[in-house]
Design brief:
- The structure is a homodimer.
- In chain A, helix 11 links the parallel strand 9 and strand 10.
- By secondary structure, chain A is of the alpha/beta class.
- In chain A, helix 5 crosses helix 12.
- Chain A folds into 3 domains: about 60 residues, lambda repressor-like DNA-binding domains (434 Repressor (Amino-terminal Domain)); about 120 residues, Response regulator (Rossmann fold, 3-Layer(aba) Sandwich), CATH 3.40.50; about 130 residues, Response regulator (Rossmann fold, 3-Layer(aba) Sandwich).
- Chain A is built from 12 helices and 12 strands.
- The interface between A and B is large, with 46 and 46 residues.
Chain lengths: ~350, ~350
């Protein structure tokens, strides 16, 4: 067993489980003489614990025996575009603690949501992470009085809950500042419907940065809207924008394609920045899109570690945690020098 | 309770659970006087069962009390493109049976896979569905001797297992025949790497349908490859194709964009068909793509019902079940009349 090289005081139940080839839950039960399993399995775990020098203190034993080493992830994002990166982050953070993540999709159906939450409780998950496709909508199920901790990630939650969202305003500011730094003077924001809280937060931050005269166009979250916005902007004889910040990568892709078809060179004549950094769209755009990444994986990691800490009895301040976005620079902005 | 209107003999445990506002697992435990729950909950379930006239026979009671009403879905498709439609189908089929689906992603890591399978067994799932991103690769975990039934969907499995895949050859044949029916005479297949079993199956069926002289070009699964293939096909002075069948929608999108940029009209001059019917790409292409849909949702539904039947003790023949693909007609083929 390679793990023997580690210092004795750092040996965790996870190391024992790994050495014995079982889950942490099984290892925990084996060591606590609870649960049903083959006697060989229990022996193997106990042997591994002795060989590795694993000695949990009484308090840890108590905590361990009550834990199920599973976290439930509930989402209404059937498409998975936001939830899957989140899940990857949660899994990555929790696997080191021997915790598995179970995802259930509820498709905005209250009955389904109720059934799945109940199934999670029935399986005695250590905690639940609620997730969605926008930060200003709640899942159709009340989770305020569950016997396990709940955190909210990329979805709305009750006032006294712990919520993780990305910092839309900062992401928007960074995008506008980046284009200004490249010498762009006539910025436009082409974005989604005003009914989205993130659209409003980004638009406000964009105005603050680019100046209140900078135009903002609202439409749908689609490539087609990117095409239409360019038709509007290039339709009249007003001064054309030299920098377009888009509300998502699909709009940005439509904008870039429409500009190319008009013979407008991106990035020479116009810089374009997207939002979401959705690899499949951003990387396939010609030229590839500079885009704001919401760091959903990091957000998942934080949410996972937080729900785990709460499951272990730690007190966590309720409120909204805004995690920073990050600008991913590809070729759609160019290296135009500042004036 | 609205459900009372239903005929007595059709009342299922699911109806009782729904009326009592609990999961099927909880309802089952309440009725079997097992499990831990608030006495009010147990009473509520029993009352609902009486009111609805729910009377399981002895055998059903035995089966019910052993069931956990959860199915585990294990996948290495982190991106979720294949697994999420599959999961939607599984959920849809199983929710009527009161069964929740828990998804775990394993990212091709054997240790992770082992931990998650173990966690699923620990949670006493009724069965496991293994899933992936290609039909000729296995997940990095041996599930041949698990105490619960396992079925394989859109991933490879052991010879004596139950496997669900889509019928690549039939999908490919349909696409080629569709273009031939539109009067196209010079078909080309632009597809992915030869190392994929589906690429081989589709290429073979394409040759059988379009004639052995019909060209097949292999490359990567990308828009860039679509552009490059058009450059190759239009580069020399050989006769140009009038129908291009692509191995996925991303290649097809590259082909359509490249043709437009060369002034070749799609669908007037050339018909283009994609594969996967990946809405986000197919619908945004100009013109929108006609594409082969692998019916992953239906595949998920079948896999879900099968694993459930196995969990209930039914014998299921091992082997590969090929489910038909379906051609989704949009505008990229046109309505060219057959000669």
């Amino acid at each position: 067993m390679e793990l023997q090289a580690k210092k004795v005081e750092r040996i965790r139940i996870y190391d024992v489980a790994l050495a014995a080839g079982v889950s942490v839950a099984t290892a925990s039960k084996a060591l606590n003489d609870t649960g049903r399993m083959a006697p060989e399995t229990r022996d193997r775990v106990k042997r591994a614990a002795v060989e590795l020098g694993f000695r949990p203190n009484a308090m840890a034993r108590g905590l361990l025996s009550k834990r199920s080493f599973t976290v439930g992830l509930l989402t209404n994002d059937t498409y998975g575009r936001f939830t899957l990166p989140l899940m990857a982050g949660i899994s990555e953070a929790l696997v080191d603690h021997g915790v598995s993540v179970f995802l259930c999709t509820i498709e905005d159906d209250p009955t389904l949501a109720k059934i799945h939450v109940d199934a999670m409780l029935d399986k005695q998950v250590d905690g639940i992470i609620a997730s969605g496709k926008r930060i200003d909508r709640r899942l159709p199920v009340d989770m305020t009085h569950l016997p396990v901790p709940v955190v909210y990630a990329f979805t709305d939650g009750p006032d006294d809950s712990v919520r993780f969202v990305s910092d839309d305003a900062q992401g928007s500011r960074d995008a506008a500042q980046w284009m200004i730094g490249l010498g762009r003077k006539r910025l436009v924001h082409v974005t989604g419907p005003t009914s989205f809280a993130s659209v409003q937060a980004r638009a406000e931050a964009f105005s603050d940065t680019a100046g209140s005269g900078a135009k903002i166009l609202h439409g749908t979250w689609s490539e087609a809207w990117g095409h239409e916005a360019v038709a509007q902007l290039w339709g009249g004889d007003r001064p054309r924008p030299d920098g377009i910040f888009c509300g998502n990568d699909q709009i940005a892709r439509g904008v870039v394609d429409a500009l190319r078809e008009r013979g407008v060179d991106v990035p020479r004549d116009v810089s374009v920045v997207g939002f979401d950094n959705w690899e499949i769209v951003a990387a396939a755009t010609r030229p590839p899109l500079t885009s704001v990444d919401m760091n959903l994986k990091a957000l998942g990691r934080e949410a996972g570690l937080t729900v785990l800490a709460m499951a272990e009895g730690k007190q966590v301040e309720p409120g909204i945690r805004k995690l920073p976005c990050r600008l991913i620079v590809r070729q759609s902005c160019g290296g135009v020098a500042a004036d």
